[in-house]
Design a protein that fits this description.
Blueprint: E1 4-5, E2 29-30, H1 37-40, H2 47-50, H3 65-72, H4 80-87, H5 111-116, H6 122-125, H7 142-151
Antiparallel strand pairs: 1-2
Length: 166
């Protein structure tokens, strides 16, 4: 049971240096390790346990294998997927093969700032806990961001998200 991502292979993107490039199929790629938020949600693990910088940084980090193995050294340790995960080593960061949410270079976005404003993860990422794979729930467009800022009475001044003079 794989969750293929609709991205071109490394051979179609010259210069793409990905640590799992040898796993890429000719036209599309699957995640090096499948992860299901839906399967982990009943455990009531908070987003910030795995995405440790979500409240302190611009980006929400992804966990190293060692964090997953905290539980999986004992839980489902004999499953082929967990064996594959463990074989990567504790410091490996195999998630995700391709980002689902990407902000343009000319836009400043801070997860920390949005979390301080008490914006819930699901506002942009949808009901991730109900899904096996993360999909683009809210397109990252200026229109969507401005509408959200208006709804929450946040600034819509250009320099809130953009450096003037670019």
């Amino acid at each position: 049971m794989g969750w293929p991502l609709l991205i071109r292979s490394s051979s179609a993107l010259p210069g793409l240096a990905h640590p799992y490039a040898d796993l890429f199929a000719p036209a599309f790629v699957e995640e090096p390790v499948q992860f299901s938020h839906k399967r982990h949600a009943p455990l009531k693990i908070e987003c910030r346990y795995c995405h440790t910088t979500v409240e302190t940084g611009d980006k929400a980090s992804f966990p190293a294998v060692g964090k997953c193995m905290t539980c999986h050294r004992a839980v489902r340790k004999d499953s082929p997927e967990i064996k594959r995960l463990a074989a990567l080593g504790d410091e490996a960061r195999p998630f995700p093969a391709q980002q689902v949410y990407e902000v343009e270079d000319f836009v400043f976005f801070s997860h920390a700032r949005h979390r301080k404003a008490e914006i819930e993860c699901r506002s942009c990422h949808g009901a991730v806990a109900e899904r096996d794979a993360v999909t683009l729930e809210v397109p990252v467009t200026m229109k969507n961001c401005v509408n959200c800022h208006r709804e929450r009475h946040a600034s819509i001044a250009c320099n809130t998200c953009h450096e003037l003079g670019q």
